[in-house]
Amino acid sequence: MTRIVVVGSINMDLVTLAPRFVAPGETLTGERFLTIPGGKGANQAVAAARLGAQVAMVGNVGDDAFGQQLYDGLKAEGIDVTHVARVDGVGSGTASITVAGGENQIVVVPAANGQVTPAQVEAARDVIRCADALLVQLEIPLDAVDATLRIAEEEGVPVILNPAPAQRLPVDWLRRVRFLTPNQHELAAVLGDDGDTDFRELMRRAPCPVVLTRGEDGAWFRDGDEAPRHQAGFTVDAVDSTGAGDTFNAALAVYLAQGLDVAVRGACAAAAIKVSRLGAQPGMPRADEVTAFLETHR
Ligand code: RIB
Known about the structure:
With 298 residues, the protein is of the alpha/beta class. It has a single domain (3-296), classed as Ribokinase (UDP-N-acetylmuramoyl-L-alanine:D-glutamate ligase, 3-Layer(aba) Sandwich). It has 11 helices and 13 strands. The chain has helices spanning 40-50, 65-76, 118-123, 125-129, 142-154, 171-174, 184-191, 199-205, 244-255, 260-275, 287-296; strands spanning 3-7, 11-17, 32-38, 54-62, 80-87, 93-100, 103-109, 133-136, 159-161, 179-180, 210-213, 219-222, 229-231. It has a 6-stranded parallel β-sheet with strand order 5-4-1-8-9-10, with helices on both faces. A 4-stranded mixed β-sheet has the order 3-2-6-7. Residues 9, 11, 13, 38-40, 43, 95, 106, 108, 139, 242-243, 245-246, 280 line the site of alpha-D-ribofuranose (RIB).
C-alpha cells in the first residue's frame, strides 16, 4: 500500500450556493448554505485515503467545535492523526466559499493553520521517513513548508509541492521537489513572471519537474529535459470545482509508482469526478470509481 504524508491546512468550508457571484457592495440571495470539511492539506489527505493510500496528516485544528468535527472526520477516513494538534485559544481555519455555475470564489482565514511550526513537522520525521511521497501546499507558514522540504530531502522522500495559494518561491525550494503542481497562474507567480509568458515556456524555465493543471484542458507535464507533454481533460457536467486541484495532487501521488503518464491520466480522471460533485471532501472519488470512469472515458 502506498504510504503518503500530507503536511498542510485543515479548514471548515462555509459554502454558499448562489445563482452568480456577488458584485462589490451588492447583496444577493443564495440558494443553500453548507459547512463542509476542507482545507488543501486535509483535502489531499482524504483524497489519497479514498484512493487506497495509507495516509498520515500533519497540521492543526482549533479548540472550537469545528476543530473536533474536522479531527473526527480525518480519523473516520482512516487517516493517522497522531500529528494533528489542537491549538488552545485559537479557532479552526475557515474558507468562505461561493459556488456559482460550477466555479468558486474562496476567502481563507488560516487561524490554527497559521500556527503549524517547523518543530511540529520535525516531530513527524519518523512518519515522513517511511513515506513513499509527501504532499505539501502553501496554506501553512512558509517556515513550516521549508522545514518539510528539508526533512523530506534528508529522509529521501519525494515531495509534491502544490504552490497554492500562489506566491513567489525561492529557487532552492523548487530544486528540492520531485514535482511542482501549479495551475498556470500559480506557476507564473512562483517564478515571479508577470503572467504574459506562455505556460509551456514557464514549464521549461522551472528548475524542477512540473505537472501543470489546466482545468478542462487537462494537464501538461515535464519531467527532466523533455518538452512539456499533454494529457487531455475529461468532460463532465461541472457542479463544483472546489477541491479538484487537491484531488488531482493526491491521485498523482497515489498513482505515481505506475509511471508519470498513467498517474497524470488518473489524476485528471479523479479531478473530473470531483468537479461533477458538490463539496471538497464529499465529492472525492474512491479508487474503484476512478477505475470505472477511466474504462468508460477515453
Ligand atoms: O483547494 C480547496 C480548498 O481551498 C478548500 O477546501 C478551502 O478550504 C481552501 O483551503
